[in-house]
Amino acid sequence: MTFRPDSGSAKTPIIPHEKIDRAKVEAVNKAEHRSLYAAQKKIHPKRAKGTFRTIKWWVMIVTLGIYYFSPWIRWERGPGIPDQAILVDIANSRFYFFFIEIWPQEVYYITGLLVLAAIALFLVTSTAGRIWCGYTCPQTVWVDLFLVVERFFEGERNARIKLDKASWSSAKIFKKIAKHITWLVIAVLTGGAWVFYMNDAPTLMHQLIAFDAPLTTYFWILLLTFTTYLLGGFAREQVCTYMCPWPRIQAVMMDEDSLAVMYRSDRGEPRAPHKKNDTWDDRGDCIQCRQCVVVCPMGIDIRDGMQLECIQCSLCIDACDTVMEQIGRPKGLITYDSLANFERREKEEPEKIHIVRPRTLLYTIFMIVLGGSIIWGLTHRSNLEVNVLRDRNPLFVQLSSGDIRNGYTVKILNKTHDIRKFSLSITGLKNYDMRVVGVQEKTPEGMPIIEVDRDRLRSVKVYLSVHRENLPTPSIDFSITATDLDGTSVSNNATTFKGPNK
Amino acid sequence: MSTEPEYDEVTKTYTTGHEWDGIKELNTPLPRWWLWTLYATIIWSIGYWIVMPAWPLINDHTRGVLGYSQRDTVNAELAAAKNARLIFSEKLLNADLETIENTPELLEFAMAGGKAVFGDNCAGCHGTGASGAKGYPNLNDDDWLWGGSLDEIHETITVGIRGVHDDTRLSDMPAFLTDDMLDKDQIKNMADYVVSLSDNTHTVPEGTYEVFQENCAACHGENAKGNKDFGAPNLTDGIWLYGADKETLISTISYSRKGVMPAWADRLDPATIKSLAVFIHSLGGGK
Fold first, then answer.
1. Does B150 lie in the same domain as B134?
2. Residue A18 has pLDDT above 80, yes or no
3. Is the same domain home to B211 and B103?
4. Where are the domains of chain A?
5. Are B93 and B207 within one domain?
6. Cβ within 8 Å of residue A346, ≥6 positions away
7. Choice between A320 and A13, residue whose per-residue pLDDT is larger
8. Do the beta carbons of residue A386 and residue A493 sit within 8 Å?
9. Interchain CB distance below 8 Å, B138 and A397
10. CATH of the domain at B142
């Protein structure tokens, strides 16, 4: 069977069918009207009520809440290190996310995360269609929020249509100005929240108010204010239809078993208005009330079948279920359904939801493998990185004593928030003499001790000398090992010692 | 020819009201957003003409109200960079060389500057890696003709060797053949002797030791270990500026060697020379 929220409950009293809210409209974006050169016609979506609308309110609260407030979460990391839980610290090239700290050379974790997000999107799309578009896409969420404002000042659908047609009056001017100012305030807050992710939020807040924040932050705030205002207030459904590449790509992720918001034409047709005591025989359940059309934020008629414009926000399900309840017919005339179920009903087979398919399995396995690798990588990564760069100009130096000297630049990266000391030792090379420029401290065994400040890279010059008579071959492979004095981490680095050919 | 706009049933569009030989044109105006963008750019460009340099004149160009100039910007940035360096340059100037080497902040600045200056001025002879070539000393090793301490390196850079500076480092090895000081056989024997100093398997003709003491020891020392006061090289080590084979040594003894290095005092400022000295001292062989 198809997914049908709170099906079966018929608590609403059946009302005379003539009194059902009816609209004599055509969908603005009906295929026949969809000329590329036509001017945009404004859509005045009516507010739907029902399960999906409730889900969408909650998604809006949670996603906007995360966006606006997460820069303000604090996370103690130690002295001298930012205490913002989520921070893209561009000046110091670090990305902080709660207990995770990513250095620029580890940016592949972010790549992995983006790939993971993309596959999650594929999985969701192949399972249940445009869930992302319909519920969580920022464009959808902000347009929804902007519509709340529009309804607050200008009223419900019919009032808004009337207002737009009416000639200018002081009331109309007031309503319009109030709406646009509120939109702009939301847009400024949106742009404002963005810059808090790149800077310490409380500090930047003070600077912004005192007008002495860096110029770039004002630029970003202005830019995002502009885009939010434009995309949320004016462009709206055009963003999804004309600007966004995702609707065009996702067709390849969907197959006959993917769930999508659909009008069950086999049950609804033939459609016709219905009077209370008319029979339901020889006709469909669709009573031509067009409530699905008026609530649609994309301006389409779901009964025309699956369309590129449809973001599957499910508001037409809510609208139709409300009417079905009022006329006492089963809910789910518009519902999450699959093309395969259409065929099954035609063949009079039972409907079923077929989620576990090779496609979804593959996506899931790939996600687990990738997610697992990221987690493994993050938990097993070393807090010490050592690079040994051999001098190549000159390859080696002959000293007056007959020694051959090689130079190495050893870079030690301390990723912890503590000062650490490392000893340098050599394996695979005999009778050598080691000198580290600027380092006097030594272990009891005579190995140089190198102190590296917290969260820093230290680069030291190491000179190794071996008497030419002690060199069996012109090139010897050996390794330089950095060991934390407390024994917690060790890094081996292979390199070579070169001498003259004879 | 102008007529009234007509309604066209097929395209549901009005005509422009113009007719040319029976051909009428549908009125399909440019999109409004496009037009508004055009108008906005026109207004922008007028504003731009006024505030920014825009129109070429015969000998000059309009300066614009803001007086903006990219050249001024570059000059200001160069001046700012120079000022920023000035703080450190002055510190370098006032600090002695030892202090520079032991102060990480100054050392870092001196190394960065020294490396750049070395590439511009010294690498031509000494090589980008300072490893030298025949006749041009390797600055990485521990064999220094005129001394390898910080101060000695600094002095050599400042005054040069056999150059035009009043205090230039100066020494003059005789050309033993052309100056008629030794004959050819003696020179060959001497070459054998010099080879034997760093290769004890080499046999030496008798009597050469005495000739060495008489002619060479004054500068190269009785034990042939050299003397940095005269820029006389150590003849007992394995490092040779012109080559250690007998032929080269015969040539060196016969005709002498007079390598020249320019004095940098007139070309580089004192702070830069200090940076350079610190950089070269750090290459590994400094004493």
1. yes
2. no
3. no
4. 1-70+79-136+245-350, 142-235, 384-498
5. no
6. A266
7. A320
8. yes
9. yes
10. 1.10.760.10
Q: How far is B264 from chain A (nearest CA, A)?
A: 24
By DSSP bridging, strand A403-414 and strand A457-467 are antiparallel
Residue B46 falls inside a structural domain: no
Beta-carbon separation of B143 and A399 below 8 A? yes
Residues of A with CB under 8 A from a CB of B: 37, 39, 391-394, 397-402, 405, 407, 437-438, 461, 463
Order of strands across the sheet with B7-8? Answer: B7-8, B13-20, B23-26
- Kindly give the pairing relationship between strand A260-263 and strand A100-102: unpaired
**Range(s) of the domain holding residue B241:** 184-255
- Whether B226 and B93 map to the same domain: the answer is no
- Give the ipTM of the model, two decimals please: 0.71
Closest residue in A to B103 (Cα) is A438
CA distance B178 to chain A (A): 31
pTM of the entire structure? 0.71
As a residue count, chain A comes to 502
**Chain B residues in contact with A397 (beta carbon < 8 A):** 131, 138, 140-141, 284-285
pLDDT at A259 (0 to 100):
92
pLDDT category of residue A502 using cuts at 50, 70 and 90: low
Lowest-confidence pick of A16-25, B119-128, B174-183: A16-25
B131/A400 Cβ within 8 A: no
> Is pLDDT of A478 > 90?
yes
Q: Same domain for B234 and B272?
A: no
The dihedral through the CA atoms of A253, A258, A259, A265 has a sign that is positive
CB contact under 8 A, A393 and B143: no
The two tokens of residue A475 are 């090139």
Task: With beta carbons less than 8 A apart as the criterion, state whether A285 and A333 touch.
Answer: yes
* pLDDT surpassing 70 at residue A137: yes
The amino acid at residue B273 is I
Band the pLDDT of A8: cuts 50, 70, 90.
very low
Is residue A13 predicted with pLDDT exceeding 80?
Answer: no
Closest CA to A359 of A257, A234, A240: A257
Q: Decide if pLDDT at A48 tops 50.
A: yes
pLDDT at B166 over 70: yes
A-B CB pairs within 8 A amount to: 50
Lowest mean pLDDT among A13-27, A202-216, B121-135: A13-27
Same domain for B87 and B119? yes
- CATH fold of A384-498 reads Immunoglobulin-like (2.60.40)
